[in-house]
Amino acid sequence: MATWTEFAAATPWLASSIRALLHQYGPGMGYLATVRADGGPRVHPVSPIVTDEGLYCFVIDSPKRRDLERDGRYALHAFPAEDSDVEAYVSGRAHPVTSIATVEHLARSHRAAPTLDWRLYELTVESALLHRHEAGAHPHTWRDPAAGRSGPAHERRPRKPFLQLVAA
């Protein structure tokens, strides 16, 4: 799976558009889907953190965290925009962050309460999607070529820059 940095290097416009949607209200806002032990989906609101170094999420002790510890697969959907019909989605695997410096830096900069039992995860990217719903529109997607999934890795460029998509 690609890191956020690798994904952003492969498709800068798509990564910056998704980052803008995740942080459209200031702090990151989205819905994190995980896989329950019985194989069903579990969805919770989260505050993802997108930096130039990676895509991260603090996860408290919860069924969601146990899902990530057991399976690791996730899907992250940006919180819906109030003024547009643009959607963003990223999926891949979550990995616990073991770098103490990274954990401390993100905990300080994002005010993660030290009294809570949370763990920081890096979310690697297997696929990403940006979609504006309009007649005849096609989603703009990216798939990590190294992930080994069938089908071509491809990118479709939007007809308008992302900021115009949101403002339209």
Brief description of this entry?
With 168 residues, the protein is of the alpha+beta class. The chain has one domain: Roll (Pnp Oxidase, Chain A), CATH 2.30.110. Helix content is 25%, strand content 32%.
SSE arrangement:
Blueprint (H helix, E strand, L loop, with lengths): L3 H7 L1 H11 L7 E6 L5 E6 L2 E2 L4 E6 L2 H8 L2 E6 L7 E11 L3 H10 L8 E6 L3 E6 L7 E4 L18 H6 L1
Helix pairs in contact: 1-2
Task: Explain what this protein looks like in three dimensions.
- Residues 136-168 are annotated as: Disordered.
- This is Pyridoxamine 5'-phosphate oxidase N-terminal domain-containing protein.
- Residues 19-106 form the Pyridoxamine 5'-phosphate oxidase N-terminal domain.
- InterPro entries: Pyridox_Oxase_N (IPR011576), Split_barrel_FMN-bd (IPR012349).
- It comes from Catellatospora coxensis.
- By secondary structure, the chain is of the alpha+beta class.
- It has a single domain (4-167), classed as Electron Transport, Fmn-binding Protein, Chain A (Pnp Oxidase, Chain A, Roll), CATH 2.30.110.10.
- The protein is built from five helices and nine strands, in the order ααββββαββαβββα.
- The protein has helices at residues 4-10, 12-22, 63-70, 100-109, 162-167, and strands at 30-35, 41-46, 49-50, 55-60, 73-78, 86-96, 118-123, 127-132, 140-143.
- Strands 1, 2, 3, 4, 5, 6, 7, 8 and 9 form a nine-stranded antiparallel β-sheet that branches.
- Strand 3 (49-50) and strand 4 form a beta hairpin.
- Helix 1 (4-10) crosses helix 2.
- It starts with a helix and ends with a helix.
- Residues 156-168 have low confidence and may be disordered.
